[in-house]
């Protein structure tokens, strides 16, 4: 037959190499199964390309029913995996799971978990946790006890820190390591309430190993015009945490908010900074009570 375009009838491009339009976010449904390709592996999980407009995150707790110490023991870049949509967020991001049936049901609920190991814990004790998901009303955190038991709980937006929190994503991000206290446990519903705020009276002690705010007394009287040496400890969507060292050897971590990295608009923190990078910072505020310090990489305004 004659090709009306006058082009060759055969093509060197195979169907395998052809690109298809990405799946729109609004077409993704919780519980749907896809075959995807691991795009990147991180300490807290892996991003997987399922052919959608964006990549989905499989949190470490959603890779296997067994407890996983190292994601890279299970996944590697380029690996094909079968996944299910576990949840969708209003900002266009979505979560994945490799465990069938582990989804955040249509009403926004989370899967029922075994929280019996957490029922008798003191609300004054602190435990290690990792942020597994973020919602407008708070953050879901996977808590791990020293002897191994693990479960998810909710840190309500009002329990993230002292003072008013306008946006959860300005305070924490998925994969971030945090310290939490268990406030209440609902065994029947498999739910647990957590707090990142200090307990009244200082808290501490007990099986969780006491947690106290960082000692920032050495930084309290430093002029905001003074430049100090720092090293980027971690990057987040809202800024970078920097370890600052004084001449007398005192060190502490502070936050350089995304608006304090440089003059002008910063679209992505990781476009400007990376972990381990040495930077010059100024101390702009110190909250000794909560152990938090605000830093800036911008020149002081006169």
Order of helices and strands: EEEEEEEEEEEEEEE
Main sheet attributes: strand count, strand direction, barrel closure: 5 strands, mixed, barrel
Task: Tell me the fraction of residues in β-strands, as a range.
Answer: 35-45%
Number of helices: 0
How many separate structural domains? 3
Helix content: under 10%
Q: Could you name the CATH class of the largest domain?
A: Mainly Beta
Mean pLDDT level: 80
- Tally of extended strands? 15
Report the radius of gyration as a whole number of Å: 23 Å
CATH superfamily assignment of the largest domain? Nucleic acid-binding proteins
Oligomer: single chain
Task: Please supply descriptive tags for the structure shown above.
3 domains; 0% helix; 15 strands; 5-stranded mixed β-barrel; 5-stranded mixed beta barrel; globular; OB fold (Dihydrolipoamide Acetyltransferase, E2P); 302 residues; mainly beta
In short:
With 302 residues, the chain is mainly β. The chain has three domains: 25-97, Nucleic acid-binding proteins (OB fold (Dihydrolipoamide Acetyltransferase, E2P)); 115-195, OB fold (Dihydrolipoamide Acetyltransferase, E2P), CATH 2.40.50; 227-296, Nucleic acid-binding proteins (OB fold (Dihydrolipoamide Acetyltransferase, E2P)), CATH 2.40.50.140.
């Amino acid at each position: 037959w004659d090709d009306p375009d006058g082009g060759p009838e055969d093509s060197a491009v195979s169907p395998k190499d052809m690109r298809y339009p990405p799946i729109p976010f609004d077409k993704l449904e919780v519980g749907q199964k896809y075959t995807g390709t691991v795009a990147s592996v991180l300490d807290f999980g892996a991003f997987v390309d399922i052919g959608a407009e964006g990549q989905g995150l499989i949190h470490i707790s959603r890779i296997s029913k067994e407890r996983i110490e190292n994601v890279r023991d299970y996944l590697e870049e380029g690996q094909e995996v079968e996944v299910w949509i576990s949840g969708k967020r209003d900002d266009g991001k979505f979560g994945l799971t490799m465990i069938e049936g582990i989804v955040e049901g249509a009403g926004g609920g989370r899967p029922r978990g075994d929280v019996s190991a957490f029922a008798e814990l003191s609300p004054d004790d602190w435990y290690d946790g990792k942020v597994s998901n973020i919602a407008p009303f708070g953050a879901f955190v996977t808590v791990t006890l020293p002897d191994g038991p693990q479960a998810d709980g909710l840190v309500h937006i009002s329990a993230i820190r002292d003072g008013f929190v306008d946006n959860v994503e300005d305070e924490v991000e998925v994969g971030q390591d945090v310290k939490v206290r268990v406030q209440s446990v609902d065994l029947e519903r498999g739910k647990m309430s957590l707090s990142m705020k200090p307990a009244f009276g200082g808290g501490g002690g007990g099986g969780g190993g006491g947690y106290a705010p960082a000692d920032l007394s050495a930084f309290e009287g430093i002029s905001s015009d003074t430049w100090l040496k720092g090293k980027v400890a971690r990057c987040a969507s809202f800024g970078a945490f920097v370890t600052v060292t004084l001449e007398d050897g005192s060190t502490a971590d502070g936050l350089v908010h995304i608006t304090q990295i440089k003059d002008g608009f910063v679209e992505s923190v990781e476009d400007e900074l990376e972990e381990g990078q040495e930077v010059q910072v100024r101390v702009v505020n110190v909250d000794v009570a909560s152990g938090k310090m605000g830093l800036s990489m911008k020149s002081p305004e006169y």
